[in-house]
Amino acid sequence: MELAISGSVNSIGKQFALRSDGRIDRHTSHYRSPILIKCLPSAFDGRALLYAVATKFNWRFCGLRYWMHDKLSCRKPERKFGPGKESRGLEIQGKDDFSYHLKTPLSSKGMAPDEAIPEAMCNVEETKAPVYKFKENKDQNVISDGAGSLSKSSFLLKAKSSRQSPPGGTVSSLCIAVIGATGELARRKVFPALFALYYSGFLPEDVGIFGYSRKNLTDEDLRSLIASTLTCRIDHQKNCGDKMDAFLNRTCYIKGGENNKDGMLELNARMEKIESEYGANRIFYLSVPQEALLDVTSSLADYAQTSKGWNRIIIEKPFGFDAISSNQLTRSLLSKFEEKQIYRIDHLLGKNIIENITVLRFSNLVFEPLWCRAYIRSVQVILSEDWGMETRGRYFDQYGIIRDIVQSHILQTIALFAMEPPVSLEDEDIRNEKVKVLRSIRKLELGDVVLGQYKDSSMKKGEIYLNTLTPTFFAAVLYIDNARWDGVPFMIKAGMGLIKHRVEIRIQFHNVPGNLYRECIGSSIDLATNELILRDVPDEAILVKVNNKIPGLGLQLDASELNLLYKEKYNEEIPDSYEHLLLDVIDGDNHLFMRSDEVAAAWDILTPVLNEVDKNNVAPEIYEFGGRGPTGAYYLGAKHGVRWADE
Ligand SMILES: NC(=O)C1=CN([C@@H]2O[C@H](COP(=O)(O)OP(=O)(O)OC[C@H]3O[C@@H](n4cnc5c(N)ncnc54)[C@H](OP(=O)(O)O)[C@@H]3O)[C@@H](O)[C@H]2O)C=CC1
Ligand SMILES: O=C1O[C@H](COP(=O)(O)O)[C@@H](O)[C@H](O)[C@H]1O
């Protein structure tokens, strides 16, 4: 049963459909829903009600779209805590490169008295969260208000309004802890994404944000540190400075010290002080080096979980070092957490290109029938970067490109691309199909792999090589041994220091059998091959390469691109993938996060090659920084009868 409940959920008003079981339904099949038709036009009309039978699709594509139209784009506003203000460096213990960040933005010590950040939330007495009724439910994704339960996104949307309404509403408090808050990822990506969500109304006004690391800092140090990376959106900077202040006021620092047990006890105590008595949900973003993961998660599990709501942990890639270490990590995580609490994040999966794989295939009639070996000759997944390892040298030297990029991003892309149609868009249905594909991928052999490493000759002092054998380039051909894909080469290429920055999935179709135009086509591979291209970089696009007649007398064919260029069609800033994925975590949606069996299957594909490379000290082919990469990649393509399509 669908029942539209109209309520002033936020300032523009949104409507949701309640299922007969009381939950807001975001997970029904979208392409059957008439709501889609209602929803899209309304997305462009700020006044219109957004009808949501609140399917996952409607949320993602209509809700998100509305949000994008209404909320996003980047411009730095005038604000209290931003850069550009005078600052005096802070003296802190354990100085490292990060101390630079404390010096640039305003630190509390450099503030004028009237600008000092109030200790609003961290001084817990001032702002105790309102008390809402919370009933623990076995399904941790459901928050009960006694009158029916709500899924998480509705909980969030509701959060905005019900926090202003009297207690007795349906909202429990939310605390988000960023463990490793002083690290590069936290500063560059996680806090900015959290602020963007806060600014756009996707976090409750009284969310608690906690930064945690071993350093000896104060709340204000942390605020100064992260303030320099927070941004506002171009066309939505209204009140952004105030929002930023409010966000920073809700951000506290916990010093973990050398003993995470004490640190986690302290984190728990600080969270408890601002949480509601009846309902408290917590997210822990573990932005720490892999080596620290076991200790941190174990202490967190034992000392920082709440029993008054759900606890979710976000784990950063690469989820181990090889099959053995990854399995150990998984075992240890599963000894402390349930699978559904674990979100293994790879931010590249939060990009539109990834969701478009399934949207294109399953919501259009024209593609799915072609999605198999009978029509597709090869698939290429290309992720080339024009920059080097830069500040992440130490990490990269240890892990290399296979562990950093291939193990998660590229294999996940292939899994989503090649999976059988899932029963529904429910997380587990999708993950069930992904793991089947991963397990059907033939184990890689060294002969089907090309390793490369860039050298930089642009420096005056001669050629600069890395000190280790760490690959900065990887190309390989994978085969999926199942009925749909038997014999189709999946070409993968990931590299740094290459001539062009490109992130693409290219699907090349077979030649037309008995082609009536073969004389016009001749030996042109371009004319002989239709191609579907999903592109993230340089310009987000979906392209289909088809043949057409060149105007004029006579019959000459041309290969042209039917193109959907996002920046031309959608004139708006696209949310960062961390925003997308963080919202999914808040939402309890883990279809873009790897389940334990998926991670194991991915490592099983790569580990034999990784072991061989390490054991035999296989030397990568050296290529020039800013060039096209190792020539070996071309031979590899030729061996499998495929030409790389990104040249
Ligand atoms: N940087 C990036 O662009 C990306 C990073 N990742 C992953 O994200 C994670 C973090 O990366 P990154 O930010 O670059 O790493 P950094 O080394 O820059 O930061 C690590 C953070 O963790 C803290 N930390 C280290 N050890 C411990 C410990 N034992 N207990 C508590 N806190 C600890 C550090 O602070 P302190 O030393 O004071 O405790 C610091 O705040 C890694 O797993 C990485 O693989 C994934 C994708 C991209
Ligand atoms: O996770 C990673 O991604 C970045 C690329 O991120 P993007 O946001 O620029 O797409 C990559 O450079 C890095 O090596 C890798 O760890």
UniProtKB/TrEMBL annotation:
The family database entries (InterPro entries) matched by this protein are listed as: G6P_DH, G6P_DH_C, G6P_DH_NAD-bd, NAD(P)-bd_dom_sf
Q: Print the keywords alphabetically.
A: Carbohydrate metabolism, Glucose metabolism, NADP, Oxidoreductase
| Tree of life domain | Eukaryota
Matching Pfam families, A to Z? G6PD_C, G6PD_N
Keyword NADP in record: yes
Keyword Oxidoreductase in record:
yes
Glucose-6-phosphate dehydrogenase NAD-binding domain span = 178-356
Look up the EC number in the record and give it: 1.1.1.49
Q: In which pathway does it act?
A: Carbohydrate degradation; pentose phosphate pathway; D-ribulose 5-phosphate from D-glucose 6-phosphate (oxidative stage): step 1/3
Which interval of the chain is the signal sequence?
Answer: none
Its biological purpose is as follows:
Catalyzes the rate-limiting step of the oxidative pentose-phosphate pathway, which represents a route for the dissimilation of carbohydrates besides glycolysis.
Q: What is this protein called?
A: Glucose-6-phosphate 1-dehydrogenase
The species this protein was found in: Stephania cephalantha
Organism lineage string = Eukaryota, Viridiplantae, Streptophyta, Embryophyta, Tracheophyta
